Amino acid sequence: MLTVLQIGAGGVGRVVAHKLCQNRHLFERVVLASRTLSKCEQIATSVKAKGWGELVCEQVNADSVEEVVALIEKYQPKVVLNIALPYQDLTIMQACLQTKTNYLDTANYEHPNVAKFEYKEQWAFDQAYRDAQIFALLGCGFDPGVTNVFCAYAQKHYFDEIYNIDILDCNAGNHPYPFATNFNPEINLREVSAPGRYYENGAWVETKPLEIKQTWAYPEIGERDSYLLYHEELESLVKHIKGLKRIRFFMTFSENYLNHMRCLANVGMLNITPVSVPTTNGGQAEIVPIQVLKQLLPDPASLAGKTTGKTNIGCYIHGNKNKQEKRIYIYNVCDHQKCYEEVGSQAISYTTGVPAVVGAMMICKDIWGGENSKGVFNLEQLNPDPFLEELTKQGLRYDVIER
Ligand code: NDP
């Protein structure tokens, strides 16, 4: 029986579990494990109500290699889908190595006490994964994930040489809350408030947080102010897209979001270092301000159903083909309300969860990670065509505008 083990039952986890169960012909048994068992059970109830069968629910602390190893040994999955947080990447990768099991995640490793993310520690598993004859797929959400595949697809079908890539991420959704993040608040606010960085002419250029603003026109949405951020796919694309001169990442934010974020940063609520606070019984407790903030903000999963509007995420690519300069924009548009109708989620969770399931399909059908590709991979290193074909079937269409 083909089994997949999913770890993490948050906003993205809900989409992954529903889409896995929609595809029972391939994923015969789906095990959903997370820190809080009741969240797994809530998702299992929803899946069952939609007529997509049973989920096996388990409790696990994925910070413990031993607990993840025990779970893998119990169910013998073909792949472990890490849909928990970036903090768990290394422990789950280690557990997969010990049990010789394939691995997939949607975000690269971050240490809880250092606001910095990079692939170094995950790429370091490559030789061990090759020796164990297993496959790891890193960053299989939308960005990173589909954006990496878009670049590989452009290189394969549209360009002889790629000079510049701008990855654009626009969420034009509206919700009734004064301030909310569209995925895990702690991870989101760490990312957005960090210094920006982009790559140009062989070197990384650092900027102050949100220092560079440009206005981009997004199909089906219109013009939006977009801010340069550092984003993890830049690191792997610089390595794997040969001849690249410049790559940047832009994300849209409303003035309201930025005002709230700046205010919270100014008063220290985005800090990740613990502070000591007096407790009601006269003692002292250590708290991490950003974790307190996370508890106070709306759970991103609760935005589902209350968010209207669309997202547009894509890659604007400039290069040449047959000695002619050309530019393309390859992108997806996703509607928040349609995602809610299908799986009870908003579009940010949906656009992350669906690619993770497509990645799992590529692994379970031995299309990616088969005989000749063992080790640790980013998506742009693999054949983009079967992935994009399946992505469209699973609900995320892509379009290409040529200029
Ligand atoms: P949530 O915070 O909603 O969910 C995280 C889930 O992981 C929760 O169920 C949480 O459990 C569980 N979890 C956390 N720590 C542990 C642990 N130690 N052991 C077991 N389970 C644990 O996050 P999201 O669903 O919004 O995001 C999930 C992932 O997707 C993140 O890594 C995020 O960075 C990534 N992401 C990637 C994107 C992309 O395009 N590539 C875009 C958006 C997100 P509990 O309920 O107990 O807290």
TrEMBL record:
Q: Where is the Saccharopine dehydrogenase-like C-terminal domain?
A: 141-396
Asked whether the keyword Metal-binding is assigned, the reply is no
Would the keyword Oxidoreductase be found if you checked this record's keyword annotation? yes
MF-aspect GO terms: oxidoreductase activity
Source superkingdom: Bacteria
Q: What is its EC number?
A: 1.1.1.-
Domain Saccharopine dehydrogenase NADP binding span(s) in chain numbering: 4-137
Alphabetically ordered keywords of this record: Oxidoreductase
Tell me one Pfam family matched here: Sacchrp_dh_NADP
Q: Which InterPro entries match?
A: NAD(P)-bd_dom_sf, Sacchrp_dh-like_C, Sacchrp_dh_NADP-bd
Q: What is this protein called?
A: Carboxynorspermidine dehydrogenase, putative
